[in-house]
Each structure stands twice: as C-alpha cells, then as structure tokens.
Amino acid sequence: MHLAEGVLDGPTLAAAALLAAGGVALGLRRLDDRRLPLAALLGAVFLVASTVHVPIGLGSVHLVLNGLAGLLLGWAVFPVLAVALLLQAALLSFGGFAVLGANTLLLAAPAVLAHYACRRLLGSPSRPRLLAAGALAGTIGIAGAALLAALLLAASGGRAFTDLIALLVAVHLPVLVVDATIGALALAMLGRLLPHALRAGPVDPPRGPT
Amino acid sequence: MKAPALAQDDPGRAAAVRPGVAAARPGRRGDARVRLALAVGASVTIALIEAPASLLWLLAAAATGCAFAVLTDGLRLAQLARRLLAVNAFLVLVWLTLPLEFGPDGLAWSAQGVELAARISARANAIALAVCALLAGLDAHGIARAAAALGLPARCARLMLLMVRYIAVIGETWRRLDRAARARGFAARADRRTLAVLAHLLALLLAHALLRAERVDLALRARAFAGAFAAVARTAVPRSDWVWATGTLAALAVALLLPHLH
Predict the structure, then answer these.
(1) What is the nearest CA distance from B261 to chain A, expressed in angstroms?
(2) Average pLDDT of B245-251?
C-alpha cells in the first residue's frame, strides 16, 4: 500500500516524516550489527513477496505482509521498510521521496503494534497459536495501515477526501483477507520447517535482564 | 502470479547470476549522489507547489528532462511507461471520488474537486517524470551507494547495501520456487488452493532467508567481522551531473517565481 506523491499537504508530510524518522532511529538503535544480515534478508523476502499478485475475482491484489514483517522484525521493521520504500520509489515509482515518511509510518507503525500484540503467541509455537499469530498480525498490519492512511488523508484534505478514504478502505478489505490468510498459513508452515528460528524470537529482542 | 518486478529490473540480479553478461551492460559510472539529492529535492519542492501555472511548467520541464535522459542516459520508454502507469493507478481512485460530492440534492459535480484532482495528478506526474529523468540508468546498487554518500547513518547504509544484495538473491530463489510450482501444474486462481500454495512458497522463502542469515552470521564471525565493512572507494561526480543540477534548479526556480510574475 502506497500513498502517491502530490496527495498530502506540506504539514502532514513533515509530521509523518518526523514520526517515521523517530521510528527508524529507534529501530536502528535496537538492531545490533550482527543481526543486520538477518534483518536485510527478511526485508528482501517481504519486498519480493510484495510483488506477488494474488487473483481475486475480476482483479488481483498484491501481498503487503507488513504485519508478519513486524512480528518477525520488531522495531527493526521501521528501517527495513524505509529502505524498501526508498528503493521502490527510486526504481519503480511506487510511492515517492516526498511521501516516503508517510508511507513508512503507515506500514511500519501497525507492524510494530502487531509485534507487541502477537509475539507472545510465538513462545510455544503450536500450529493453532501460529495460525492465530499470523492472522492477527496480518489483520492489524493492513487495518492499521488503512486507518493511518485515512488519518493522513483526513489531516491533509479534510472533507474533500471523505469519499477517497472510503474507497481506499474498501479496496483494502480483500487485501486484508488475503494477507491475513497467507500470513497465518505461512507462519504455521514456518513453525514446522524451522521451529527453533521462531522460538529464538524476532530480530529485535525485548530489552531487559534475561 | 507475476514475477518480482524489482528483482527483474535490477541489473545487480544479473550480476549475481551471470557476471559476464552484467559486466557487458552499459551502466552509469561515477558517483550518483548529486542526482539522488536532486531527485529528493525536486520531489519535496514539487509536492509543496500549488499554483496551476507552475505545475504545468514543471510537467513540461520534467518531460523535457525525460526526453534528454532517453537520449543521453539510456532511459527506456517502456520502463518510463511502466512507472507512469504505477503512479496513475492511484490517481484513478482520486479521479473516481474527488469530482463527485454528495450534497443536499444528491450526487453533484464539484468544480473544486476536479481542480484538486487535476492538481494532485499534475504534481504526481511531474515528480515521477523528474525522478525518472534524474535517476535514469541507476540500479539498486547505485541508489544505495548514492544514499550512503549523502550521509545516511552508517548502520542504515549497511542495511541498505545488504538488502540490495539480498533482493537479488531472494528474487532468484523466488523465481526458482515459482518455476518449480508451475512445472507441477500450479496456476494462480481465485481459490483456497492458491492461497495455500502461495503461503507454502512464502514459508519456504522465509526458511531460505533464515538459514542463509545463519550461514552469513557464521561466515562473518569466522572473518572476525566487527560491525563495519571497509569503506568503498568513492568515485568522482560526473561532469554531466552538474549540467543536470543546473537544469533542475533553474526549472524549480522558474516554477517558484511564476505565481509572482503577475
């Protein structure tokens, strides 16, 4: 999900960029150098997966998987998504440089929320718990992104964007269903393939005495 | 199910698979930081411009820039068309909703809405054209090196360089998994089976990535990795980039002055 250039106004762009920069700084601080390759590899997986189109009825939706990314990456999802969005803006014109902060914020903030909401479910990775974690992370990721996109649009254009917001939310309902389903099934499968990797916790482990 | 576009467009992928072929490809040489700084600066400036005359001028200037990039930097028209299509896909939603508004008399045509939609479309397309012109011929490695040279925090720059490398690797793995699935008769349809197969492929891709991360970690530790790569030698900014800088800054200056001329 990308907001295009030219839609949001100056103050909204600046505020979103500031918040996103804060998230990126926090994510980088909590990502130690030894886990950089792991974060980069997971980031690459999510970037490649986001180009996969899933047919639904007449059209198709592409995977977003920001919730699953947040679940596995923790706060590191902010820098990883910022880098991914920067590359997409530069090479494919998805999103853009001026709206980079806004797009990072709307994808990464719900992803961090999904991390805190679902990470306990990874503790003892049984299939039902992993299915629940994947589905919940996907739902929080897409619903949160749609909500934040709506908030940014409302802050920029007020009533002029009401219908656009409604349409944007409606368009993302099938994305939510597909993302949550594929996220849940993939996480359950991953739990069977590499249970130790999920037990080891995400890239960004919780701080504190262990 | 389409193949990953980013990995496909990335010459770095070709480098990972067929070094000889990639080396023979003409690419931009030198340091691209001026181009990237201009692209970011132009995007932010254009995003803030409201005056219709300025936006029309910028559309024309950016299109001229693209024409130059086609002639001098090997910008391909098909690539330009694909990128403009990506930008205008979102604008379809804007045009579907903004010109119509619900009033006391039901659905009504709104001149204000049309004007706003036109302004948004002009801004989005002017930015896309300017970015395409300024970054023509740059691949993901070029963007990452330019961003690092522009003062990205060191750890973020390393993350970006690693990601660029791994997008090529993971993209190739994905294509292999996809080919294998299709060889076994899989075709993406709107059904539960498709979702299950795609989830399976995604899990395999994640497993590949996690196992590779373990191998990379071991390899780095075996080489006494201390958290930083040796600096890559910096190359000079090509002289032609300063010509682009002059042109871009002049175009933006005209756009900012236009509303004050009357």
Answers:
(1) 23
(2) 94
